[in-house]
Amino acid sequence: MTRARTLSAGLLSAGVAVTLALAIRDRPRAGIDLAATVRNAIPDSGVEHDITAVLLQFRSYDTLLEIAVLLVAAVVALALRDEPSSRTVPPLETAEDEAINTPLLAALQRLLLPVMLVTAVYLLWAGAFQPGGAFQAGAVLAALGVLWRVAGSPLGVTISAAWRRGALVIGFAVFLAAGSAMLLLGRPLLNWPAEWAKIIIIAIEFVLMLSIAVSLLGLFASSPNAADQQP
Amino acid sequence: MVTVVFDVVLGTGMIIAALGALWSRELFRAVVLFVVFGLLVALAWIRLQAPDVALAEAAIGAGLTGALLLDAVGHLRSARREERE
């Protein structure tokens, strides 16, 4: 039974691989050259990097919906927690008994936290003219949060639940508000005026970075911990 | 020529890491191989001239997912230890 199943799975995989290889070998030419279209429109976008221009200028509606999906995912993950009291954005600091107290981790954290913070902000800023942007910066910031949670708060800093909730929502809220504000100015939705485009894009990316970081951290931290599982 | 060799090594490495992550009996080793796989995929994205995707892959695919999986392994271990007691 298992052998037959393995064999059929193997045959199926091989078939898919061969089909893929054949499909890639004679793929049709693209009807329009999107890369060239984007390159020609870059001067109007306010940023110099093509990916950022597509994400936050030409196809910003898609990015807005993506952020909404991420927000919903984070909210649902947090709502599914066992403890009603913990159904909010988890605190950055762990409970005393859960933190791993080793000098090595504390030293590593002290070394890495500033570097990660600078890296995240740099990635965000660099997104305007080279690879980088809100998602990458947010992921680095979330990793910083994970390290913070694992090793305990380095400076005794605590961030209140209201701030955490605010950080989760701020990306989507500011993005939507800025996009709708364009309607009031008589422009299409999410259509930034050229002279303000760079500032608006960087500002939106900054709040997106915060929200992405908190969402990812929320997904990480909402894993059931040992204390929840005890009957 | 050098790039072709590099690509072949990279592709083979990815397949080996993926197989290792799937077939490893020990969960910890599987997670480490998964992180290795993520970093190799990030390199592959760079070779495909998609540095933006490479950054996201390294940060989310290898970094955060790796941390998440390690956390899960830790929980499984402590759960097993409690069962034995």
Q: Tell me which oligomeric state these chains represent.
A: heterodimer
| Rg for CA atoms of chain B | 16 Å
Strand % of chain A is under 5%
**Helical stretch tally of chain B:** 3
User: Largest beta sheet of chain B, briefly?
Assistant: none
Structural class of chain A: mainly alpha
| Greatest interface by residues involved | A-B, 20 and 16 residues
Helix content of chain B: over 70%
The profile of the biggest β sheet of chain A is: none
Low-confidence stretches of chain B: none
Described by the principal axes of the CA atoms, the overall outline of chain B is: elongated
Number of strands of chain B: 0
SSE string of chain B, helix = H, strand = E? Answer: HHH
Structural class, from helix and strand content of chain B? Answer: mainly alpha
- Let me know the average pLDDT of chain B: 89
How do the strands and helices of this protein lay out in sequence?
The complex is a heterodimer of chains A (231) and B (85).
Chain A: H1 2-25, H2 34-45, H3 50-58, H4 60-79, H5 103-126, H6 134-151, H7 161-184, H8 197-221, H9 226-229
Chain B: H1 2-23, H2 27-47, H3 51-84
Helix pairs in contact in B: 1-2, 2-3
